[in-house]
Amino acid sequence: MPDAASSSAEPLVLLECLVAGTSHRDNLVQYEPGLTVGQPLLLSREPANKYDDWAVQVHTAPATDPANVWLGYLPEGRNETVARLLDAGKNLTARLNHKSWESDWLHLDIEVLLHE
């Protein structure tokens, strides 16, 4: 049985979902081969999004990093809690669980993680 110190280091899975909008990200055909299952991903709020007040972007690296690839969004209707936690300054990331092409759509399954 793990002790309390080791179990508190494990992040809490808040959400499992698809990344929305990957078919609108033109660069994904080029970058998909470099995406690996288990890869950490970053989440960033887009509060000024005119379509979704709770928009949360999914990225491969910080937006200021030249290696950053913007993959898409958390799905509308499933993103409010994550957006509120990000707005409150909580440490949230994501992890890639699965990737596959379905015709011209890149199917990306992720987990959203809350870190202590």
Automatic annotation (TrEMBL):
HIRAN domain span: 15-90
Keywords: Hydrolase, Metal-binding
Signal peptide range in chain numbering: none
InterPro entries: HIRAN (IPR014905)
Domain of life, source organism: Bacteria
GO MF assignments: hydrolase activity, acting on acid anhydrides, in phosphorus-containing anhydrides; nucleic acid binding; zinc ion binding
Protein name per Swiss-Prot or TrEMBL: HIRAN domain-containing protein
Source organism: Hymenobacter sedentarius
